[in-house]
Design goal:
Helix 1 packs parallel to helix 2. It contains 7 helices and 7 strands, in the order E-H-E-H-E-H-E-H-E-H-E-H-H-E. It has one domain: NAD(P)-binding Rossmann-like Domain (Rossmann fold, 3-Layer(aba) Sandwich), CATH 3.40.50. 38% of the residues lie in helices and 14% in strands. By secondary structure, it is of the alpha/beta class. It comes from Cohnella thailandensis.
């Protein structure tokens, strides 16, 4: 078990990615601190799987935009689980907003949910990891730290901020044995609806812009997070790992691996 004895803090445990991450890491021996806006109601099935594996899971509902609340939650959780060894920042809020007529309130909402929570969490957890001179911080980000969405510039800006936060933190916290890396996760099922745009064709027939014609899953993401959380990745720090099956390489009008019945070439 690669995470035996480790305490892993997963933010936004209610999300699709959170529901894939928690059982996978628990199966490797981790004790879990799960931040759940629903108080655990939306992850009851995953919590049952975790308990059946013999792992411990503590569900909390902290506002990670607020440093004082985050600090209190971590102090309380440490009394039951111990100090956090691995932070998986997993927040991923997409709200449509344009540069032309977007509301400031929406911009702030998206930036706070994605970028501010990343900073507040990393600062609070990083201080505790510093005391142990060890730890892993993993930011689950997006390919839209690199590529505009066409529907939510605020989301792209927030993920770009997380990208640089990871790089800055890797240098500063790296002096204390803390590794900081980011995953730029690419298209999964349903992203054509999530990033629906009136001006961009990026997600038109998007599964066939992955060279192999097969979309990734959140279980794939969980496997990479597990690797980064384990000692197997001990020499990775400050890395941006793009996990998109080659989606962003589709800049030219290459023939795609589209089956004939779906409109591809024979």
């Amino acid at each position: 078990m690669r995470l035996r004895g480790k305490v892993v803090f997963i933010t936004d445990a209610d999300s699709v990615s959170g529901r894939a991450l928690a059982p996978r890491l628990a199966a490797e021996g981790a004790s879990l601190l799960l931040n759940s806006a629903s108080g655990g109601q939306e992850i009851e099935d995953e919590l049952e799987r975790i308990r059946q594996s013999g792992a411990e899971a503590l569900v909390v509902s902290a506002d990670l935009r607020r440093s004082s609340e985050t600090e209190r939650m971590l102090e309380s959780a440490a009394q039951r689980l111990g100090a956090v060894d691995v932070l998986v920042h997993n927040n991923d809020l997409v709200v449509p907003i344009s540069v032309e007529n977007g509301e400031e309130s929406v911009f702030s909402e998206v930036m706070d949910a994605n970028a501010k929570t990343a900073f507040v969490s990393a600062k609070a957890v990083g201080a505790r990891m510093k005391a142990k001179q060890a730890g892993q911080i993993i930011f689950v980000s997006s390919i839209h730290a690199e590529k505009p969405t066409g529907c939510s510039f605020a989301y792209s800006a927030a993920k770009g901020a997380v990208k640089m936060l990871a790089r800055e933190a890797s240098v500063v916290l790296g002096r204390h044995g803390i590794r900081v890396n980011a995953i730029e996760f690419g298209p999964a099922e349903g992203d054509d609806e999530l990033f629906r745009s009136d001006i961009s064709m990026l997600y038109d027939s998007y599964r066939y812009k992955v060279p192999d014609g097969v979309l990734g899953t959140h279980e794939d993401l969980a496997g990479l997070v597990l690797f980064l959380a384990s000692d197997e990745s001990r020499y990775l720090n400050g890395a941006d790992i793009r996990m998109d099956g080659g989606f962003l390489m589709h800049y030219m009008d290459f023939k795609t691996k589209k089956p004939f019945e779906a409109g591809g070439s024979p």
